[in-house]
Amino acid sequence: MIVMKFGGTSVGTAKRMEGLAERVRERLPRQPVVVVSALSGITDRLIRGARLAEAQDGAWETVIREIQERHHAVIGELFPAGPVADRLRGQVALILSELRTFYAGVHSLAELTPRTLDAISGMGERLSFEIAAATMADRGLPAQAVDARTVLVTDETFGRAAPLMEETQARCEASLRPLLGRGVVPVLGGFIASTRKGVSTTLGRGGSDWSASILGAALSAQAIEIWTDVDGMMTVDPRVVPAARVLSEVSFTEAAELAYFGAKVLHPATIKPAVEKGIPVLVLNSLNPSAPGTRITADADGTAGEARAIAFKKGISVVHISQPRMLMAYGFVARVFEAFDRHRTAVDLIATSEVSISLTVDDAARLPAVQAELATLGEVKVLQEMAIVSVVGRGFIRRPGLAARIFQALREVNVVMISFGASDVNLSFVVAEAEAEKAVRLLHREFFEEGPP
Ligand code: ASP
Ligand code: MG
Hints:
By secondary structure, the protein is an alpha/beta fold.
């Protein structure tokens, strides 16, 4: 069997829903389990409504109306007036009346707990999976809606619950396996789950990929297909470099490095359960279904020492602390990190010299507070509007001449900080934001546009 997961844009309109049914039809012999996200933009809206209610702003009424209109429109396009459309509209009404109750409660208490937010934010998937299942059934597929909350069991970490694999597996065997055995296609909402006691939870934003991976691992799937709206993971952001190429295969660690840099295709942590069981994950484009996509495996082949992709991230701050007398004295570095830790500010790249330490931070919200604290430890300088550029590959450290090639390509770019050697799969450095695109273009030309060296 396989798992097919369709993201928000792949279920966002009636036309896309129909495309989904076609993709599933093509794969019927492989016994698919289908996982769908909420219609694109719905989860954001649900959360926005909750925040409005918390602020006792009655505009959440509008949010409910918008969500209703969107779903009614999709249902209206997919089904002629009749029993199926009526049933689906009835379900929408039921879920939205529950939503109204929640919003009203949050409004009157002016309090939004993580538990309540989970109940609210998961409603998009509760709306979408029924519509997806009905669409498939209407087009002659043996589809059956299954409420993911009856299958996926998690702990009680509301907002980002973690799966309890043993129980989830037992429930998959009890409820999904028999359906598959009868040739039925189970259709579930991603993102949503419940605790042992049956309280609704979510797996965190973007969590539908995680759902797919958890179900795939639990059922020992042959493959997990993540259907999205791009051709796969690419050598570089195609908006910056039009010559970007699709990567046919990447390893899990490479995918992890790329994801940090905003390759929004998927969050690798979410596919970990699958990768750990040796199940390949394919990223496919629902708008271009015949494209081969990207295959993510525990250990993709490819030559060690080759660059695979260029990634970058803007909005970075570099914090530079120098203390000629005591930098490497015992405990100094620990105190620097404690300052970041106390203000819950994550550090990404680090470089040290005998008398100074440089760090990058991508969430600068609490940087002034960190800075004030660091000032007691040494002289502090902060550079804003910087970018991290990263060359991702494999076996970098063992490859002589690679760093030379990178910096030769960048000879006209001012490199502020370098991190090399901590990971064998990337070489990262910092440049001014204004130079990031130029650096990325130069590197892409060097490694991907001019043939082998
Ligand atoms: N609908 C959820 C979100 O927008 C989960 C997902 O799409 O993966 O975060
Ligand atoms: Mg997603």
